[in-house]
Amino acid sequence: FPYVAPLQVPHTRAWFAGVANLRGGLHGVVDLAVFLDLPGRPLSEGQREQSHLVALNPALGLNSALLVDRLAGLRSAAQVVEVAVDNPVRPAFAGACYRDADGRVWQEILLSALAEDALFLGVAA
Question: DSSP letters of 84-125?
Answer without folding.
Answer: --S-S---TTEEEEEEETTS-EEEEE-HHHHTT-HHHH--B-
